[in-house]
Design goal:
44% helix; elongated; Peptidase_S8/S53_dom_sf; two-stranded antiparallel ribbon; 562 residues; 17 helices
Protein backbone atom coordinates (compact mmCIF):
# COMPACT_ATOMS: atom_id res chain seq x y z
CA UNK A 1 0.00 0.00 0.00
CA UNK A 2 1.53 3.34 -1.03
CA UNK A 3 2.25 5.77 1.74
CA UNK A 4 0.91 9.30 1.84
CA UNK A 5 3.14 11.86 0.28
CA UNK A 6 3.78 13.63 3.56
CA UNK A 7 4.67 10.43 5.34
CA UNK A 8 6.89 9.33 2.45
CA UNK A 9 8.64 12.69 2.53
CA UNK A 10 9.25 12.39 6.25
CA UNK A 11 10.62 8.85 5.86
CA UNK A 12 12.93 9.96 3.06
CA UNK A 13 14.17 12.85 5.21
CA UNK A 14 14.78 10.43 8.07
CA UNK A 15 16.83 8.14 5.86
CA UNK A 16 18.86 11.10 4.61
CA UNK A 17 19.48 12.28 8.15
CA UNK A 18 20.56 8.76 9.09
CA UNK A 19 23.05 8.67 6.25
CA UNK A 20 24.47 12.03 7.34
CA UNK A 21 24.77 10.82 10.93
CA UNK A 22 26.50 7.67 9.81
CA UNK A 23 28.97 9.65 7.72
CA UNK A 24 29.69 11.90 10.70
CA UNK A 25 30.20 8.87 12.92
CA UNK A 26 32.49 7.30 10.36
CA UNK A 27 34.58 10.45 10.15
CA UNK A 28 34.85 10.51 13.97
CA UNK A 29 35.84 6.86 14.02
CA UNK A 30 38.47 7.44 11.38
CA UNK A 31 39.91 10.32 13.38
CA UNK A 32 39.96 8.08 16.45
CA UNK A 33 41.72 5.32 14.57
CA UNK A 34 44.26 7.87 13.37
CA UNK A 35 44.91 8.83 16.96
CA UNK A 36 45.59 5.24 18.02
CA UNK A 37 48.33 5.10 20.57
CA UNK A 38 47.90 8.78 21.54
CA UNK A 39 45.88 7.96 24.64
CA UNK A 40 47.21 9.88 27.65
CA UNK A 41 49.33 8.14 30.21
CA UNK A 42 46.40 8.11 32.58
CA UNK A 43 44.78 5.39 30.46
CA UNK A 44 47.53 3.17 31.75
CA UNK A 45 45.54 2.58 34.93
CA UNK A 46 45.04 -1.00 36.00
CA UNK A 47 43.34 -4.13 34.52
CA UNK A 48 43.45 -7.95 33.89
CA UNK A 49 43.72 -10.09 30.75
CA UNK A 50 42.47 -13.67 30.14
CA UNK A 51 42.35 -16.23 27.35
CA UNK A 52 38.93 -16.51 25.74
CA UNK A 53 36.95 -18.78 23.43
CA UNK A 54 35.30 -17.87 20.17
CA UNK A 55 31.51 -17.98 20.09
CA UNK A 56 29.01 -16.60 17.60
CA UNK A 57 30.05 -13.12 16.52
CA UNK A 58 27.73 -10.10 16.91
CA UNK A 59 26.00 -8.72 13.80
CA UNK A 60 28.22 -6.89 11.35
CA UNK A 61 29.00 -3.34 12.41
CA UNK A 62 28.13 -0.32 10.36
CA UNK A 63 31.18 1.76 11.28
CA UNK A 64 34.88 1.17 12.02
CA UNK A 65 34.44 1.69 15.79
CA UNK A 66 32.00 -1.16 16.18
CA UNK A 67 34.01 -3.24 13.77
CA UNK A 68 37.13 -2.72 15.89
CA UNK A 69 35.27 -4.18 18.86
CA UNK A 70 34.29 -7.37 17.10
CA UNK A 71 37.26 -9.45 18.23
CA UNK A 72 36.98 -8.32 21.85
CA UNK A 73 33.24 -9.01 21.98
CA UNK A 74 33.80 -12.44 20.45
CA UNK A 75 36.46 -13.23 23.05
CA UNK A 76 34.09 -12.26 25.87
CA UNK A 77 31.26 -14.38 24.44
CA UNK A 78 28.66 -11.62 24.81
CA UNK A 79 26.46 -12.63 21.84
CA UNK A 80 25.02 -15.68 23.59
CA UNK A 81 24.99 -13.91 26.96
CA UNK A 82 22.85 -11.08 25.56
CA UNK A 83 20.12 -13.61 24.78
CA UNK A 84 19.83 -14.08 28.55
CA UNK A 85 20.33 -10.51 29.75
CA UNK A 86 21.85 -7.23 28.63
CA UNK A 87 22.22 -5.83 32.14
CA UNK A 88 18.86 -4.11 32.58
CA UNK A 89 18.25 -3.30 36.23
CA UNK A 90 21.92 -3.35 37.26
CA UNK A 91 23.88 -0.25 38.31
CA UNK A 92 27.64 -0.01 37.96
CA UNK A 93 29.43 2.72 39.91
CA UNK A 94 32.48 4.03 38.06
CA UNK A 95 34.95 5.49 40.57
CA UNK A 96 37.16 7.41 38.18
CA UNK A 97 37.85 10.87 36.75
CA UNK A 98 34.21 11.51 35.85
CA UNK A 99 31.91 10.51 32.97
CA UNK A 100 30.54 12.65 30.17
CA UNK A 101 26.78 12.00 30.34
CA UNK A 102 26.14 13.67 26.95
CA UNK A 103 28.20 11.30 24.84
CA UNK A 104 25.79 9.81 22.32
CA UNK A 105 26.91 6.26 23.20
CA UNK A 106 26.09 6.87 26.90
CA UNK A 107 23.21 9.33 26.77
CA UNK A 108 20.45 8.39 29.18
CA UNK A 109 22.53 5.79 31.02
CA UNK A 110 24.65 7.98 33.33
CA UNK A 111 23.82 9.32 36.78
CA UNK A 112 26.39 11.86 37.94
CA UNK A 113 27.44 11.60 41.55
CA UNK A 114 29.61 13.89 43.67
CA UNK A 115 33.03 15.21 42.77
CA UNK A 116 35.15 14.13 45.73
CA UNK A 117 38.21 15.90 44.28
CA UNK A 118 36.68 19.35 44.62
CA UNK A 119 39.34 21.90 45.56
CA UNK A 120 42.23 20.08 43.90
CA UNK A 121 41.92 22.06 40.65
CA UNK A 122 41.89 25.86 40.60
CA UNK A 123 38.50 27.49 40.31
CA UNK A 124 37.05 27.59 36.83
CA UNK A 125 38.93 24.52 35.59
CA UNK A 126 36.55 21.94 34.19
CA UNK A 127 37.47 18.26 34.61
CA UNK A 128 38.51 16.43 31.48
CA UNK A 129 36.56 13.22 32.31
CA UNK A 130 38.42 11.30 29.62
CA UNK A 131 39.41 8.17 31.52
CA UNK A 132 36.08 7.82 33.28
CA UNK A 133 34.07 8.19 30.05
CA UNK A 134 36.31 5.63 28.38
CA UNK A 135 35.70 3.04 31.15
CA UNK A 136 31.96 3.70 31.31
CA UNK A 137 31.56 3.11 27.56
CA UNK A 138 33.23 -0.31 27.84
CA UNK A 139 30.81 -1.27 30.63
CA UNK A 140 27.47 0.15 29.46
CA UNK A 141 27.94 1.87 26.10
CA UNK A 142 24.79 1.37 24.00
CA UNK A 143 25.93 2.86 20.70
CA UNK A 144 23.93 5.27 18.62
CA UNK A 145 22.31 5.61 15.22
CA UNK A 146 19.70 3.36 13.64
CA UNK A 147 19.38 0.22 15.70
CA UNK A 148 22.26 1.54 17.85
CA UNK A 149 24.60 -0.15 15.41
CA UNK A 150 27.21 2.62 15.43
CA UNK A 151 29.71 3.68 18.05
CA UNK A 152 30.84 1.80 21.13
CA UNK A 153 28.75 -0.93 22.71
CA UNK A 154 29.58 -2.13 26.20
CA UNK A 155 29.36 -5.58 27.78
CA UNK A 156 26.12 -4.64 29.63
CA UNK A 157 24.53 -2.07 27.26
CA UNK A 158 21.33 -1.70 29.29
CA UNK A 159 22.98 -1.20 32.68
CA UNK A 160 23.13 2.18 34.40
CA UNK A 161 26.31 4.08 35.27
CA UNK A 162 26.78 5.94 38.56
CA UNK A 163 29.71 8.33 38.10
CA UNK A 164 31.74 9.27 41.19
CA UNK A 165 34.83 11.40 40.58
CA UNK A 166 37.68 10.27 42.85
CA UNK A 167 40.83 10.93 40.73
CA UNK A 168 42.33 13.64 38.56
CA UNK A 169 43.90 13.01 35.20
CA UNK A 170 47.54 13.83 34.69
CA UNK A 171 46.74 16.72 32.36
CA UNK A 172 44.77 18.63 34.99
CA UNK A 173 46.56 21.45 36.86
CA UNK A 174 45.77 20.08 40.32
CA UNK A 175 47.06 16.59 39.61
CA UNK A 176 50.27 16.83 41.70
CA UNK A 177 48.62 18.48 44.66
CA UNK A 178 45.79 15.97 44.64
CA UNK A 179 48.23 13.06 44.91
CA UNK A 180 50.20 14.65 47.76
CA UNK A 181 47.67 16.42 50.01
CA UNK A 182 46.42 14.36 52.99
CA UNK A 183 42.86 15.67 52.68
CA UNK A 184 42.38 13.63 49.50
CA UNK A 185 43.82 10.42 50.95
CA UNK A 186 40.47 8.71 51.57
CA UNK A 187 38.45 9.86 48.57
CA UNK A 188 38.27 6.28 47.26
CA UNK A 189 36.85 5.03 50.56
CA UNK A 190 34.27 7.81 50.53
CA UNK A 191 33.39 6.98 46.93
CA UNK A 192 32.83 3.31 47.77
CA UNK A 193 30.48 4.14 50.62
CA UNK A 194 28.59 6.64 48.47
CA UNK A 195 28.14 4.07 45.70
CA UNK A 196 26.90 1.42 48.12
CA UNK A 197 24.42 3.80 49.73
CA UNK A 198 23.05 4.88 46.33
CA UNK A 199 22.19 1.48 44.89
CA UNK A 200 25.33 0.29 43.11
CA UNK A 201 25.44 -3.45 42.37
CA UNK A 202 28.98 -3.38 41.00
CA UNK A 203 31.80 -0.91 41.67
CA UNK A 204 34.45 -0.50 38.96
CA UNK A 205 37.82 0.89 40.11
CA UNK A 206 40.24 1.21 37.18
CA UNK A 207 42.70 2.94 39.51
CA UNK A 208 45.63 1.94 41.67
CA UNK A 209 47.88 3.11 44.47
CA UNK A 210 50.90 1.79 46.30
CA UNK A 211 49.31 1.15 49.68
CA UNK A 212 45.78 1.13 51.08
CA UNK A 213 44.33 3.00 54.02
CA UNK A 214 42.30 1.66 56.92
CA UNK A 215 39.30 3.62 55.67
CA UNK A 216 39.51 1.82 52.32
CA UNK A 217 39.62 -1.57 54.02
CA UNK A 218 36.60 -0.65 56.10
CA UNK A 219 34.72 0.67 53.07
CA UNK A 220 35.34 -2.58 51.16
CA UNK A 221 34.02 -4.62 54.10
CA UNK A 222 31.01 -2.31 54.15
CA UNK A 223 30.35 -2.92 50.44
CA UNK A 224 30.80 -6.70 50.55
CA UNK A 225 28.51 -6.99 53.57
CA UNK A 226 25.76 -5.29 51.52
CA UNK A 227 26.15 -7.52 48.49
CA UNK A 228 28.11 -5.18 46.23
CA UNK A 229 30.74 -6.64 43.86
CA UNK A 230 34.04 -4.75 43.67
CA UNK A 231 36.36 -4.99 40.64
CA UNK A 232 39.76 -3.28 40.41
CA UNK A 233 42.80 -3.23 38.12
CA UNK A 234 45.87 -5.31 38.95
CA UNK A 235 48.31 -2.65 37.67
CA UNK A 236 50.51 -1.78 34.71
CA UNK A 237 53.96 -2.07 36.31
CA UNK A 238 54.69 -5.67 35.33
CA UNK A 239 57.22 -4.98 32.58
CA UNK A 240 60.60 -6.38 33.62
CA UNK A 241 59.19 -8.09 36.72
CA UNK A 242 58.61 -11.80 37.05
CA UNK A 243 56.37 -11.32 40.07
CA UNK A 244 54.60 -8.30 41.51
CA UNK A 245 54.19 -5.58 42.33
CA UNK A 246 50.91 -5.45 44.24
CA UNK A 247 48.54 -2.54 43.78
CA UNK A 248 45.53 -1.37 45.73
CA UNK A 249 42.59 -1.58 46.10
CA UNK A 250 42.86 -4.62 43.78
CA UNK A 251 44.98 -6.57 46.30
CA UNK A 252 42.59 -6.11 49.22
CA UNK A 253 40.35 -9.02 50.33
CA UNK A 254 36.93 -8.92 48.74
CA UNK A 255 38.08 -7.22 45.53
CA UNK A 256 38.34 -8.97 42.14
CA UNK A 257 41.82 -8.21 40.81
CA UNK A 258 41.94 -8.11 36.98
CA UNK A 259 44.96 -8.45 34.68
CA UNK A 260 45.30 -7.61 30.98
CA UNK A 261 45.69 -10.04 28.07
CA UNK A 262 47.16 -9.25 24.67
CA UNK A 263 45.69 -10.11 21.27
CA UNK A 264 47.00 -13.68 21.57
CA UNK A 265 45.29 -14.00 24.96
CA UNK A 266 48.58 -14.22 26.82
CA UNK A 267 49.50 -11.96 29.71
CA UNK A 268 50.24 -8.48 28.44
CA UNK A 269 53.84 -7.47 29.06
CA UNK A 270 52.85 -4.46 31.21
CA UNK A 271 50.29 -6.31 33.34
CA UNK A 272 51.24 -7.03 36.94
CA UNK A 273 51.80 -10.64 37.94
CA UNK A 274 51.05 -11.60 41.54
CA UNK A 275 49.20 -14.23 43.56
CA UNK A 276 46.12 -12.02 44.06
CA UNK A 277 45.16 -11.80 40.38
CA UNK A 278 41.81 -13.57 39.87
CA UNK A 279 40.82 -12.95 36.26
CA UNK A 280 42.03 -11.55 32.96
CA UNK A 281 40.38 -9.78 30.04
CA UNK A 282 41.55 -8.21 26.77
CA UNK A 283 43.58 -5.09 27.48
CA UNK A 284 45.47 -4.21 24.28
CA UNK A 285 44.12 -1.94 21.52
CA UNK A 286 40.70 -1.48 23.08
CA UNK A 287 38.39 1.11 21.47
CA UNK A 288 36.24 3.29 23.74
CA UNK A 289 34.42 6.58 23.96
CA UNK A 290 35.83 9.91 25.08
CA UNK A 291 34.22 13.21 26.06
CA UNK A 292 32.66 15.28 23.30
CA UNK A 293 31.56 12.26 21.19
CA UNK A 294 35.18 11.33 20.58
CA UNK A 295 36.66 7.81 20.40
CA UNK A 296 39.95 6.61 21.76
CA UNK A 297 42.02 3.46 21.62
CA UNK A 298 44.33 2.40 24.42
CA UNK A 299 45.85 -0.41 26.43
CA UNK A 300 46.03 -1.24 30.11
CA UNK A 301 44.52 -3.19 32.94
CA UNK A 302 41.95 -0.39 33.30
CA UNK A 303 40.22 -1.49 30.11
CA UNK A 304 40.30 -5.15 31.18
CA UNK A 305 38.76 -4.20 34.53
CA UNK A 306 35.88 -2.39 32.85
CA UNK A 307 35.12 -5.45 30.71
CA UNK A 308 35.02 -7.72 33.79
CA UNK A 309 32.75 -5.23 35.57
CA UNK A 310 30.38 -5.45 32.60
CA UNK A 311 30.19 -9.25 32.93
CA UNK A 312 29.58 -8.91 36.69
CA UNK A 313 26.74 -6.49 35.87
CA UNK A 314 25.14 -9.14 33.65
CA UNK A 315 25.22 -11.64 36.53
CA UNK A 316 23.78 -9.14 39.03
CA UNK A 317 21.05 -8.16 36.56
CA UNK A 318 20.02 -11.80 36.19
CA UNK A 319 20.53 -12.76 39.84
CA UNK A 320 20.28 -9.55 41.88
CA UNK A 321 20.39 -11.30 45.26
CA UNK A 322 23.55 -13.28 44.53
CA UNK A 323 26.33 -12.56 47.03
CA UNK A 324 29.70 -11.13 45.91
CA UNK A 325 31.42 -14.39 46.80
CA UNK A 326 29.17 -16.41 44.49
CA UNK A 327 29.49 -13.83 41.71
CA UNK A 328 33.26 -14.16 41.99
CA UNK A 329 32.98 -17.94 41.91
CA UNK A 330 30.80 -17.76 38.77
CA UNK A 331 33.34 -15.48 37.06
CA UNK A 332 36.36 -17.63 37.91
CA UNK A 333 34.62 -20.97 37.24
CA UNK A 334 33.35 -19.74 33.87
CA UNK A 335 36.69 -18.30 32.79
CA UNK A 336 38.45 -19.85 29.81
CA UNK A 337 41.96 -21.11 30.37
CA UNK A 338 44.42 -23.00 28.25
CA UNK A 339 44.18 -26.76 28.36
CA UNK A 340 46.19 -28.27 31.17
CA UNK A 341 46.73 -24.92 32.86
CA UNK A 342 45.47 -24.25 36.34
CA UNK A 343 45.81 -21.00 38.23
CA UNK A 344 48.37 -18.58 36.81
CA UNK A 345 49.55 -15.50 38.77
CA UNK A 346 49.69 -13.58 35.51
CA UNK A 347 46.24 -14.52 34.18
CA UNK A 348 44.43 -15.71 37.29
CA UNK A 349 41.88 -18.43 36.59
CA UNK A 350 41.63 -17.46 32.93
CA UNK A 351 39.96 -15.03 30.55
CA UNK A 352 36.49 -13.93 31.56
CA UNK A 353 33.62 -15.25 29.44
CA UNK A 354 30.13 -13.82 29.80
CA UNK A 355 28.19 -16.86 28.53
CA UNK A 356 30.02 -19.37 30.72
CA UNK A 357 29.86 -17.06 33.75
CA UNK A 358 26.06 -16.77 33.42
CA UNK A 359 25.78 -20.54 33.15
CA UNK A 360 27.82 -20.96 36.35
CA UNK A 361 25.72 -18.30 38.07
CA UNK A 362 22.56 -20.20 37.08
CA UNK A 363 23.95 -23.33 38.74
CA UNK A 364 25.04 -21.45 41.87
CA UNK A 365 21.72 -19.61 42.16
CA UNK A 366 20.04 -22.88 43.13
CA UNK A 367 22.08 -22.95 46.30
CA UNK A 368 22.16 -20.81 49.38
CA UNK A 369 25.27 -19.01 50.47
CA UNK A 370 25.02 -20.91 53.78
CA UNK A 371 23.91 -24.49 54.28
CA UNK A 372 20.35 -25.27 55.36
CA UNK A 373 18.32 -28.35 56.24
CA UNK A 374 17.91 -30.86 59.05
CA UNK A 375 20.83 -31.01 61.42
CA UNK A 376 22.59 -27.96 59.93
CA UNK A 377 23.67 -25.22 62.28
CA UNK A 378 22.56 -21.77 61.14
CA UNK A 379 25.61 -19.55 60.97
CA UNK A 380 23.49 -16.54 61.90
CA UNK A 381 22.44 -18.08 65.21
CA UNK A 382 24.62 -18.64 68.27
CA UNK A 383 26.17 -22.04 68.80
CA UNK A 384 23.89 -24.39 70.70
CA UNK A 385 20.72 -22.59 69.59
CA UNK A 386 19.56 -25.65 67.64
CA UNK A 387 19.52 -26.62 63.96
CA UNK A 388 17.87 -24.63 61.22
CA UNK A 389 14.10 -25.16 61.34
CA UNK A 390 14.33 -26.97 64.66
CA UNK A 391 13.16 -25.93 68.07
CA UNK A 392 15.24 -23.15 69.47
CA UNK A 393 17.01 -23.95 72.70
CA UNK A 394 18.79 -21.54 74.93
CA UNK A 395 22.54 -21.82 74.60
CA UNK A 396 24.38 -22.88 77.73
CA UNK A 397 25.95 -20.09 79.74
CA UNK A 398 29.55 -19.36 79.00
CA UNK A 399 31.75 -19.92 81.99
CA UNK A 400 34.22 -17.11 82.43
CA UNK A 401 37.36 -17.90 84.40
CA UNK A 402 39.12 -14.91 85.82
CA UNK A 403 42.75 -15.48 86.66
CA UNK A 404 44.47 -13.63 89.51
CA UNK A 405 47.48 -12.14 87.81
CA UNK A 406 49.04 -11.13 91.11
CA UNK A 407 49.07 -14.70 92.41
CA UNK A 408 50.43 -15.93 89.08
CA UNK A 409 53.24 -13.40 89.39
CA UNK A 410 53.92 -14.41 93.00
CA UNK A 411 54.04 -18.14 92.27
CA UNK A 412 56.18 -17.56 89.26
CA UNK A 413 58.67 -15.53 91.29
CA UNK A 414 58.82 -18.23 93.99
CA UNK A 415 59.46 -20.89 91.36
CA UNK A 416 62.27 -18.86 89.80
CA UNK A 417 63.92 -18.21 93.20
CA UNK A 418 63.63 -21.89 94.18
CA UNK A 419 65.20 -22.97 90.94
CA UNK A 420 68.04 -20.51 91.43
CA UNK A 421 68.70 -21.75 94.98
CA UNK A 422 68.72 -25.37 93.85
CA UNK A 423 71.23 -24.57 91.16
CA UNK A 424 73.45 -22.67 93.58
CA UNK A 425 73.35 -25.58 96.06
CA UNK A 426 74.40 -28.04 93.41
CA UNK A 427 77.33 -25.86 92.40
CA UNK A 428 78.39 -25.54 96.08
CA UNK A 429 78.36 -29.32 96.56
CA UNK A 430 80.57 -29.82 93.52
CA UNK A 431 83.05 -27.16 94.67
CA UNK A 432 83.25 -28.57 98.21
CA UNK A 433 83.86 -32.08 96.89
CA UNK A 434 86.75 -30.88 94.78
CA UNK A 435 88.25 -28.90 97.66
CA UNK A 436 88.05 -31.89 100.01
CA UNK A 437 89.78 -34.10 97.47
CA UNK A 438 92.69 -31.69 97.10
CA UNK A 439 93.03 -31.30 100.89
CA UNK A 440 93.14 -35.08 101.36
CA UNK A 441 96.04 -35.36 98.97
CA UNK A 442 98.00 -32.69 100.84
CA UNK A 443 97.47 -34.28 104.32
CA UNK A 444 98.65 -37.87 103.57
CA UNK A 445 101.42 -39.47 105.93
CA UNK A 446 105.03 -38.68 105.14
CA UNK A 447 105.85 -42.37 104.35
CA UNK A 448 103.35 -42.31 101.51
CA UNK A 449 105.28 -39.48 99.85
CA UNK A 450 108.80 -41.00 100.01
CA UNK A 451 110.53 -41.47 96.77
CA UNK A 452 110.17 -44.95 95.30
CA UNK A 453 113.96 -45.36 95.11
CA UNK A 454 114.34 -44.81 98.81
CA UNK A 455 111.62 -47.28 99.60
CA UNK A 456 113.20 -49.88 97.35
CA UNK A 457 116.64 -49.29 98.84
CA UNK A 458 115.26 -50.12 102.24
CA UNK A 459 113.58 -53.23 100.99
CA UNK A 460 116.66 -54.37 99.18
CA UNK A 461 119.26 -53.80 101.90
CA UNK A 462 117.42 -55.57 104.65
CA UNK A 463 118.18 -59.00 103.23
CA UNK A 464 121.88 -58.10 102.91
CA UNK A 465 122.17 -57.31 106.57
CA UNK A 466 120.26 -60.37 107.58
CA UNK A 467 121.64 -62.61 104.89
CA UNK A 468 122.60 -65.25 107.49
CA UNK A 469 118.97 -65.57 108.40
CA UNK A 470 117.99 -66.33 104.84
CA UNK A 471 120.96 -68.57 104.23
CA UNK A 472 123.61 -68.23 101.59
CA UNK A 473 122.93 -67.78 97.97
CA UNK A 474 123.42 -71.45 97.40
CA UNK A 475 120.73 -72.48 99.82
CA UNK A 476 117.05 -72.79 98.95
CA UNK A 477 116.15 -70.16 101.49
CA UNK A 478 118.73 -67.80 100.05
CA UNK A 479 117.44 -68.25 96.54
CA UNK A 480 113.87 -67.63 97.71
CA UNK A 481 115.04 -64.49 99.46
CA UNK A 482 116.89 -63.35 96.35
CA UNK A 483 113.84 -63.99 94.20
CA UNK A 484 111.69 -62.07 96.65
CA UNK A 485 114.14 -59.18 96.59
CA UNK A 486 114.29 -59.23 92.82
CA UNK A 487 110.46 -59.29 92.65
CA UNK A 488 110.36 -56.25 94.83
CA UNK A 489 113.03 -54.73 92.69
CA UNK A 490 110.90 -55.33 89.61
CA UNK A 491 107.92 -53.63 91.13
CA UNK A 492 110.01 -50.65 92.13
CA UNK A 493 111.57 -50.54 88.66
CA UNK A 494 108.14 -50.18 87.14
CA UNK A 495 107.51 -47.14 89.32
CA UNK A 496 110.52 -44.93 88.72
CA UNK A 497 113.74 -44.86 86.64
CA UNK A 498 115.65 -43.66 89.64
CA UNK A 499 115.13 -46.97 91.41
CA UNK A 500 116.43 -48.81 88.37
CA UNK A 501 119.87 -47.36 88.80
CA UNK A 502 120.03 -47.93 92.55
CA UNK A 503 118.55 -51.43 92.58
CA UNK A 504 120.84 -54.42 92.35
CA UNK A 505 120.42 -56.81 89.45
CA UNK A 506 118.40 -54.33 87.37
CA UNK A 507 119.90 -52.83 84.21
CA UNK A 508 119.60 -49.02 83.94
CA UNK A 509 118.01 -47.35 80.93
CA UNK A 510 120.50 -44.46 80.66
CA UNK A 511 124.25 -44.44 80.49
CA UNK A 512 124.47 -42.82 83.89
CA UNK A 513 122.46 -45.55 85.47
CA UNK A 514 124.46 -48.24 83.69
CA UNK A 515 127.60 -46.76 85.25
CA UNK A 516 126.19 -47.32 88.71
CA UNK A 517 124.86 -50.75 87.97
CA UNK A 518 128.20 -52.70 88.03
CA UNK A 519 128.95 -51.36 91.43
CA UNK A 520 125.62 -52.50 92.65
CA UNK A 521 126.14 -55.88 91.11
CA UNK A 522 129.61 -56.05 92.67
CA UNK A 523 128.20 -55.28 96.05
CA UNK A 524 125.57 -57.86 95.46
CA UNK A 525 128.25 -60.40 94.69
CA UNK A 526 130.10 -59.55 97.86
CA UNK A 527 126.93 -59.75 99.73
CA UNK A 528 126.36 -63.19 98.36
CA UNK A 529 129.94 -64.16 99.21
CA UNK A 530 129.58 -62.88 102.73
CA UNK A 531 126.26 -64.57 103.01
CA UNK A 532 127.87 -67.78 101.82
CA UNK A 533 130.74 -67.29 104.23
CA UNK A 534 128.30 -67.17 107.03
CA UNK A 535 127.42 -70.72 106.20
CA UNK A 536 130.97 -72.00 105.38
CA UNK A 537 131.43 -73.66 108.70
CA UNK A 538 128.13 -75.41 108.50
CA UNK A 539 127.13 -78.45 106.72
CA UNK A 540 126.55 -76.55 103.50
CA UNK A 541 130.03 -76.67 102.06
CA UNK A 542 128.78 -76.39 98.56
CA UNK A 543 127.31 -73.06 99.40
CA UNK A 544 130.60 -71.91 100.73
CA UNK A 545 132.37 -72.83 97.53
CA UNK A 546 129.72 -71.05 95.58
CA UNK A 547 130.30 -67.90 97.62
CA UNK A 548 134.06 -68.04 97.10
CA UNK A 549 133.59 -68.59 93.42
CA UNK A 550 131.25 -65.64 93.22
CA UNK A 551 133.58 -63.21 94.96
CA UNK A 552 136.22 -63.00 92.20
CA UNK A 553 133.42 -62.52 89.68
CA UNK A 554 132.07 -59.59 91.71
CA UNK A 555 135.53 -58.09 91.91
CA UNK A 556 135.98 -58.40 88.14
CA UNK A 557 132.71 -56.60 87.60
CA UNK A 558 133.90 -53.78 89.80
CA UNK A 559 136.85 -53.16 87.51
CA UNK A 560 134.69 -52.89 84.45
CA UNK A 561 135.12 -49.38 83.01
CA UNK A 562 132.03 -47.20 82.83
Amino acid sequence: MPLPAGRAARRAAGRAAGRVANRAANRAANRAAGRAGRLPALLLALGIGCAGTSLAAPPAAADPVRGSQRQVLRTLGVAAAWRVTKGAGATVAVLDSGVDPRHHDLAGSVVTGPDLTAGANPRGVRPRRLHGTYMASLIAGHGHGPGRSDGVIGVAPRAKILSVRVILEDGEPGFRGFNSEPRFENVVARGIRYAVDHGADVINMSISKDRPTEQERAAIRYAVARGVVLVAAAGNDGAGHRDGPYSYPASLPGVISVAAADRGLHKASFSNRNSLVLLAAPGVDIFGAGPGDQYWVGRGTSQATALVSGVAALIKARYPRMSPALVTQALTSGAVRRRGRGYDPGMGFGVVNATRALAEASRLARHRHTAAGPGVQDAARPAGAGPVGGRATAPPPVRVIRRDTRMITLYGTIALVSGGCAGAGLVSVVLLARRGRRRGRQERPAGEHQEPGEHHEREYREPEESGAGFGGPGTRAGRRAARGIRGGTGRVRAETPRSRGETGGVLGETGEVRGETPGVRGETGRGRGEAGGGHSGGPGGADDEHARAGAPQARRRQRTPT
